UniProtKB/TrEMBL annotation:
<dbReference type="GO" id="GO:0016831">
    <property type="term" value="F:carboxy-lyase activity"/>
</dbReference>
<dbReference type="GO" id="GO:0019748">
    <property type="term" value="P:secondary metabolic process"/>
</dbReference>
<dbReference type="InterPro" id="IPR006680">
    <property type="entry name" value="Amidohydro-rel"/>
</dbReference>
<dbReference type="InterPro" id="IPR032465">
    <property type="entry name" value="ACMSD"/>
</dbReference>
<dbReference type="InterPro" id="IPR032466">
    <property type="entry name" value="Metal_Hydrolase"/>
</dbReference>
<feature type="domain" description="Amidohydrolase-related">
    <location>
        <begin position="154"/>
        <end position="398"/>
    </location>
</feature>
<protein>
    <recommendedName>
        <fullName>Amidohydrolase-related domain-containing protein</fullName>
    </recommendedName>
</protein>
<dbReference type="Pfam" id="PF04909">
    <property type="entry name" value="Amidohydro_2"/>
</dbReference>
<comment type="similarity">
    <text>Belongs to the metallo-dependent hydrolases superfamily.</text>
</comment>
<dbReference type="GO" id="GO:0016787">
    <property type="term" value="F:hydrolase activity"/>
</dbReference>
<dbReference type="GO" id="GO:0005829">
    <property type="term" value="C:cytosol"/>
</dbReference>
<keyword id="KW-0210">Decarboxylase</keyword>
<keyword id="KW-0456">Lyase</keyword>
Length: 400
């Protein structure tokens, strides 16, 4: 087996736990997503079809037990798994609260009873991100109770969340006690999209899932999610907020040790960060809220390496690494060192999404992301090993 410094760790990999799948199955007749319907195949077999996005074809449901098989097929030693979108967003507060606690216990049970990487190490093959009941009308004490629960479950090292918070986005002041508790517990927040952006931007041509997934998802992580795309119970007039709005709210000044991991390499934020900084500079009311140049805060983030291309990975690592130069306005230094930026980037696959057309093939979403890491100009062998696994071992404190 590989030494710990060579382990391949997948930090962006999802699961529909049996209890969650049962809930979706119980919604088979529901008018609105999400739900699972059981269809009969032409061969007469029963097949679970999952529908989580409006206007999307259904997908076949990948069972939890396939995770280890997928990992083995691709040489993935460790996975930090998260419940897939749309989490608990569509449930009333009391049900979301109960289910969050149960699903967190379920995930702990799966990870703790799963195999270890080898007989000579304590490192398990499965760790997890827990879930918070982030829905309208949930109480702060319920959220804090679940943060506390996650922090006591040894195989849960963080929590996944969407961009809507409790209905008013992530820069909602009501969430400040939650950020404080997450920071204190040392949990990693995995920020992941679900809603995309206003679908009217995609035009009338049928481009399948390409525009919502290729652009809508990363734009949502960057800043905003659609008001009307889904029928969940949210206050419709308010836009929702993600990474940029979190930065503008001063969250990283208030909670400097908060560890936020952004899906899909932070979407458009790396490419737009200097423009963001310039717009802030020209708006004194916003500038006065922040202690640092906007580019500084990008260096506080962790990003998955799910870009499918080496040039994008290299660029993102440049942007992350230069942030240290923006710690104070007086000492701006624009020297970027991609190697430094690589230390905040972590391999991911987005399994079970983007499956290959034939079950025997390796998944392109794995091989392309691995090839991209291997081909980044200016990353040393050590940097690449870091992105493939060592950075995750450090971020999630996974020790042998
Ligand atoms: N599609 C989804 O709904 N979720 C993902 O994480 C990726 C693709
Ligand atoms: Zn994902």
């Amino acid at each position: 087996m590989s030494p710990a410094s060579k382990l391949l760790v997948d930090i962006h990999t999802h699961v529909y736990l049996p209890r969650y799948a049962a809930l979706l199955r119980s919604r088979a007749g529901a008018a609105a997503v999400p739900f699972i319907r059981t269809n009969t195949t032409p061969e007469g077999l029963a097949e679970d079809r999952l529908l989580i996005l409006d206007h999307e074809p259904s997908e076949s449901l990948t069972s939890w037990s396939e995770k280890l098989k997928f990992m083995d097929k691709h040489g993935i030693d460790v996975s930090v798994v998260s419940t897939a979108n749309p989490w608990l967003d569509f449930l009333p507060a009391s049900q979301a609260h109960t289910l969050a606690a149960e699903l967190n216990d379920d995930l702990e049970q799966y990870c703790s009873t799963g195999p270890s990487v080898s007989s000579s190490t304590q490192i398990k093959r499965l760790y997890g991100f827990g879930l918070l009941p982030l829905v309208p009308e949930i109480t702060t004490s319920a959220l804090l109770e679940i943060v506390n629960q996650i922090s006591t479950l040894p195989h849960l090292r963080g929590l996944i969340m969407g961009t809507r918070g409790i209905g008013n986005g992530l820069d909602d002041e009501a969430l400040e006690p939650v950020w404080a508790a997450i920071e204190k517990a040392g949990l990693v927040v995995f920020l992941h999209p679900h809603y995309g952006v206003d679908g009217s931007a995609w035009g009338d041509k049928d481009n399948g899932h390409v525009l919502p997934l290729a652009l809508g998802f990363p734009f949502e992580t960057t800043t905003v999610s659609s008001k009307y795309h889904f029928s969940f119970r949210i206050r419709p007039q308010r836009e929702m907020k993600a990474a940029t709005r979190l930065i503008l709210s001063g969250v990283f000044d208030k909670f400097p040790n908060l560890r936020l991991l952004l899906a899909h390499s932070g979407g458009a934020l790396p490419a737009l960060s200097s423009r963001l900084a310039s717009c802030i500079d020209h708006d004194p009311a916003v500038a006065s809220r922040l202690k640092h140049d906007a580019r500084y805060y990008l260096g506080k983030l962790y990003l998955d390496a799910v870009t499918y291309g080496p040039e994008e990975l290299g660029f993102v690592s440049d942007v992350i690494s230069r942030s240290a130069g923006y710690a104070s306005v007086a000492s701006v230094s624009k020297v970027a060192n991609r190697s430094t930026g690589s230390k905040r980037m972590l391999f991911g696959t987005d399994h079970p999404f983007f499956p290959p057309l034939s079950a025997t093939e390796k998944w392109k979403s794995v091989t392309e992301n691995l090839e991209a890491i291997a081909s980044v100009q200016g990353w040393s062998k050590g940097d690449k090993d870091g992105v493939r696994g060592r950075n995750a071992l450090a971020l999630f404190n996974l020790q042998g």
